[in-house]
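Q: How would the structure tokens look for this protein?
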Amino acid sequence: MDTLTINKLDENVQQLAQSDTVMGRLIDYVGNIEIPLRTDYLASLIRSITGQQISVAAASAVFERLNKLTGNTQSGITAVSDEALHNIGLSKRKIQYIRDLLNHIERKDLDLNKLPELDNDTIIKQLTSVKGIGKWTAEMFLILSLGRMDVLAIDDIGIQRGARWLYQVDKSERRDILKKKEPVWSPHLTIASCYLWEVVHLDLERRFPNIDNVD
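A: Here is the predicted structure in token form.
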């Protein structure tokens, strides 16, 4: 599976819409969603590390330079010096994180090829044992690389922004609304997450005051 496809007529999407009618209105407006999956697991994790605390544009530029330099392969990165990695825009800390990821793989503490066989909690535990990979990065891996359908990254800013707009809550309440909705949306948490991301992607926050006013 190279693409995560969410069809609004799918039974699971309709179940989500019925369990939460406000979410259902968002689903009707947005329609179908397709998200390309990052099926190269090592490159996916390196991309996440590379993108920490910098803009999307800057992260893409650094990741592309890294790909040209190393192919984003274990052997390619191992063969180059820290100085070479630093020269393409990686901080010393991010270089350490990438080296630690490769060390985990080399020691067989982490087998990326076996991750699809494991449950979400086990994957999160294994990935977060690597320096620089936190729970959010692991959750993004579950969704964007493995296509898991039962993941809600409560600390994701995009999801929080989408929820704040959709449910018209204060900024201070956007995490709480996600926690409140989690049992309502389960087991279709990823579907809900993707529609909340679309609030940001489609700039609905700026274009419309609330879901009742969308065209």
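Residues 41-144 form a domain with the Endonuclease III; domain 1 fold (CATH 1.10.340.30).

The chain has two domains: 3-36+151-213, 41-144.

Upvote if useful.
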